[in-house]
Amino acid sequence: MTDVPAYGAEWSAGLRRADDAELDGWLALAHAACDEADALARAAFRRDLRISTKPDRTFVTETDTAIERAIRTRIADAHPDHGLVGEEYGTEAGDAATRWYIDPIDGTHNFIRGVPLFGTLLAVERDGELQAGVLSAPALDERWWAHRGGGSWARNRGEAPRRIHVSGVTALADSQILYGSGRDIVDSGRAPGFDRLLRDVWRERGFGDFWGYALLAEGAAEAMVETDLSPWDAAAPMVLVEEAGGRATDLEGRRRIDTRTFLTTNGHLHDTVLRRLVTSEEA
């Protein structure tokens, strides 16, 4: 296992690759794109949906594709030199210095089944380092965002933004652990200590997709783990969690979003949770 880097808000601020004007502009663009995405998602939620199956046997709705098209158009109009990496339409200008990660509806299965835990995720990367991200959950009327050096923030619709921070819990026995699909984690073979870990924590819940990362960043949980996700699933959560003072790695301890595994924690418990997940040891 590789060495895990430092963490915390001050460390995260040191990862800035853009000035204030650029960061503020990118966030403003992301918020505007999410406003449009929210409206499209609300209009279709709990309505008759046109659903198709992708080659990987996952579902996609016409709303997923409509949202991603709208977001791509906004970004291309504002920044024609930026690259795009999206779930539904792939990669454009993949070698650009600045790239956007787009997940039009994270939690598509929830969206299809009428469960309000779904949202649009946007993140922007400069020279290989994620700089800003927005997570917007229209059915919950909640949104979370962050940029390097600016902290992590959340708001309910109509309320003032509030700055959020990870928890200060340091004991595994006092922690709440979140995860996506427990069955997928076990079947992946990449977290052999998962079941045993859950037996030793205070509480565990399967709050999957973006919401688990938002709860972690708000201090409502101490860890969130997934083993089957794509870069656009992890990009915005990484910025949010790190700016909130937490840590984010894959299950080999690397700060990467492209290895299908992702662990975010409040930082204090990262080494312990990571070791327990990958070794299946008792303590």
On the 0-100 scale, what is the average pLDDT? 93
The residue fraction in helices comes out at 25-40%
Strand composition percent: 25-35%
Query: Looking at the chains present, what oligomeric state does this protein adopt?
Result: single chain
The end-to-end distance, rounded to whole angstroms, is 18 Å
Can you walk through the features of this model?
This protein is an alpha+beta fold. Helices cover 34% and strands 25% of the residues. The chain has nine helices and 15 strands. Strands 4-3-5-6-7-8-9-10 form an eight-stranded mixed beta sheet, sandwiched between helices. A five-stranded mixed beta sheet has the order 12-11-13-15-14, with helices on both faces. Strands 1-2 form a two-stranded antiparallel ribbon.
